[in-house]
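User: Predict the complex with 2-acetamido-2-deoxy-beta-D-glucopyranose.
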Amino acid sequence: MANSNSLVIRAFALSLFFVVSKCLLSIPLKIYTGKYNLSSAVDLTPLRQVLLMSDGNGLSLASDPTGTVNFLDMVNNLQGDSGRGYYIEMSLGTPSQKLNILVDTGSSNFAVAASAHPFITHYFNTALSTTYESTGRTVAVRYTQGNWEGELGIDKVSIPKGPNGTIIINIAAILTSDGFFLPGVNWQGILGLAYPMLARPDSSVEPFFNSVVKQLGIPDIFSLQMCGGGLSASSTADLAGGSLIMGGAEPALYFGPVWYTPIVEEWYYQVEVLKLEVGDQNLDLDCREYNMDKAIVDSGTTLLRLPVNVFNAVVAAITRSSLIQEFSLGFWEGSKLACWIKGETPWRFFPKLSIYLRATNTSQSFRITILPQVNGFTALIVPLSLS
Ligand SMILES: *[C@@H]1O[C@H](CO)[C@@H](O)[C@H](O)[C@H]1NC(C)=O
Ligand SMILES: *[C@@H]1O[C@H](CO)[C@@H](O)[C@H](O)[C@H]1NC(C)=O
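Assistant: Here is the predicted structure with 2-acetamido-2-deoxy-beta-D-glucopyranose placed in the model:
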């Protein structure tokens, strides 16, 4: 979820079914260390990067240099799907209360329901935690979808399928909300993994992962793998799940070359899109159009969102290259479904979509290719020298 004060809201959702599936894409992100002093065991690199993995062959990822974290113990610690988001189980307070927390790289507050709401099964009862301390400050966050208000407090938290140890973190106790908790979600809070600059009420509220790194001494890197097509937001059966590896990346989850893209500015995970292709057609827009007003990697958003001009160009290119004679207008607005003969798979009617990101060697780029299949997302990453 992106904070709605960003201009991302002026973008359109691409209403095709381009969704992450089959666990072939991972997005490990290095996180900003901000003004905090981290333990000397942590390797601080001046350039913060997003790492994208492909489904190629033969990756050797460096293992945890501190040797204290067992990444394999964190594999499959996420539940959820691309329709409703991915969440991790956490234990809050003393005695501990278990809650499911949505993993969101598009915001920076850790917030949990602290009062009842019709769409959630339970909430964090601060009065029952002997270690909860209110700071007396109020806090409010507005996302692209929904908002909440509450009070800032601190308490102990541990992650059953995360790094060993208990940490003291900032918690926003949500008291009122609007459009934030949705029917059918199985999470009760949100874990904002972006940089301190996005934290509310201000950047002095240390985000969760900064606290983890500081207090547990794990490397300042996490990786995220989200699985499954999540075709229907109403199917509760077989949640696909995924992994949030804190402290590095687990080699068993990925084979292939690793490419990094520089973070343009440390607030959201803002990256630079250099080119878009639909099938083999280069959209050939001015690359400022692709980054208008910014391009971000946001695990809390389940759709690929594009600026209006880019969206229109993508639709035009798909319409041109698709084997379907006529699309109803409503199809592109998401209000009409396209139908196929029973037993026929429509994927061959649609082209693939490739997004090119700048590489750390800034005169190179690499691409992520999204296939049209609901169950066949693939990220093919190949180097490209910019001409
Ligand atoms: C936590 O500690 C136990 C016991 O030392 C160890 O077996 C386990 O792998 C550790 N978990 C993680 C995630 O490092
Ligand atoms: C960066 O990429 C360019 C173009 O491919 C290449 O000529 C140059 O050697 C690369 N620089 C480094 C440091 O690898």
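The first helix runs from residue 208 to 216.
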